[in-house]
Fold this protein.
Amino acid sequence: MSRPDDTMSAEDRLIAKYFRPLATDPGAFGLIDDAAVVTPAPGRDVVLTTDGVIAGVHFFPSDPPGGIGRKALRMNLSDLAAKGATPLGFLVSVALPAGTDEAWIAAFAAGLGEDAKRYGCPLLGGDTDRTPGPTSISIAAFGTVPHGAMVRRSTAKPGDAIVVTGTIGDAALGVLLQREQKLGPRLGLSDAMVAFLMQRYLLPEPRNALAETVLHHASAAMDISDGLAGDLAKLCRASGVSAEIDAGRVPLSDAARAAAAADPALFETILTGGDDYEIVLTLHSERLPSLRAAAKAAGVPVTEIGRIAAGEGARFLRGGQAMTFARPSYSHF
Amino acid sequence: MSRPDDTMSAEDRLIAKYFRPLATDPGAFGLIDDAAVVTPAPGRDVVLTTDGVIAGVHFFPSDPPGGIGRKALRMNLSDLAAKGATPLGFLVSVALPAGTDEAWIAAFAAGLGEDAKRYGCPLLGGDTDRTPGPTSISIAAFGTVPHGAMVRRSTAKPGDAIVVTGTIGDAALGVLLQREQKLGPRLGLSDAMVAFLMQRYLLPEPRNALAETVLHHASAAMDISDGLAGDLAKLCRASGVSAEIDAGRVPLSDAARAAAAADPALFETILTGGDDYEIVLTLHSERLPSLRAAAKAAGVPVTEIGRIAAGEGARFLRGGQAMTFARPSYSHF
């Protein structure tokens, strides 16, 4: 079988050394073939998603390389979780500027491998290139669901309860804090709070532990990557319904709560900023108790924040008044 | 259902306008969901591959945008063809510099859509981003094969015949001609020959028409993307065998033959340059007649160029002498 040797190109040697150990699935053929193969269990559909990160756009070039690999994979795992899918594996395309040293590649691959193992989502194949531009990572991830059972955005029904996982807005605040060193002290945040919010940006925690629960309980779901307000508006548009959210019930971390208390304008950042990688799901309200029990068993906090109704648009109510946002949704474009 | 409207982001509007028409598979949900879903027919495996292009590395920024989209897709279709797989669909990640105008996006999507239709490989999902770097397109493509039947690189056997499709080296010459305007006249090539070679670089013709034949006849196969010499060496290394090629039998187009006659040093470029997107396959020599018949029926030229033997390495013989190459394989890295 193939091994690093003198007749291999530099590209093949790097792949063999750093990426082959991540390709634990037999269908990856140790990354020596043109393609990988997977055999979904009978009666299972394959769920496919793709998402990527670019230095200077989605991460800071100085961010630790292991974290960059992990974040890129986790963004995709979050999509699979929101669809109720069990991870199957992923493909990665890596474009690196000339001068990227081997230590960077080693650390990037190590981070990626750590999460591939943690989430049971092995590397199936990839593509490496030099680029005259910034470091760019694109991942395509795959999972499976029972046939016909993928949880969609477009199937929320009037009367459904709206639930979110975890806490909202931490990553959006984390970006601000990373960009502006003096913001933390100005808001009176402790060092621990600043570190917590930055970490929420650097390394999201996809809710794959809840995927099975989403599959069994949700009428519709999506992952929150472009801000709760904008993403909920997308879900409503896809479903042909409206949403009414009690803004006071949106779950906040202690750090986010402290930031919003110090500067109330940050509440809009919390509701509209990107990179939460939590799940927003809708479900028949009678299912709320069993959802709560399943989420508790999975160790994932869930909070009911509002209801789906007929009509269109997602309204956030505070003190009985509908909030208006200057920039309702994060767009990379 | 979702439609372009005022509450959508610029990104969503562009996707809805230019990419949604390509998402003809019901499992793509009109690109409004986080993920797509596919249901492989019972008894079929899913074959996965990824490949991408970056402006200034794999194409010239001034190349027609429709051709860029088509080339990126065809590179992946070529991998599927070499594995014997029938296309199922693809995901595309598009990173565009600020200032990319809508006409570029429209032409890019139109080209992509044309080939998605031609090859029966619909768009399943994607990701669009702004980049501070060059235009970058990454595609992940999927196909299916009967369970366990994916044609691999690692299964060539001593005694097998070695066959290639089409003609070799055209694209490598096409790049040289595109880089150096005076080369064509200096080599005495006609304008038609120059145009032919450049076109072979700009728009490869993946051999998906031969996929079924590869599946039924090949003992091993791969697509030739990094040069015949280097890719055949990879196949030999993966299979634990050697190859002996009669260099005089390697099929050349009239244009490539004329170029090599004018400058014999170009024969190395022909054998080692990248971007052929032809297939090299091995098969039991008794199967050659039925392979030839099936290839003829599929309209794909095939040529026997040598034999697999025990040992290691791929040797190209000319006049009984083994050729040596300064740079045996194209590496992007």
Summary: Residues 1-6 of chain B have pLDDT under 50 and may be disordered. Chain B has eleven helices and twelve strands.
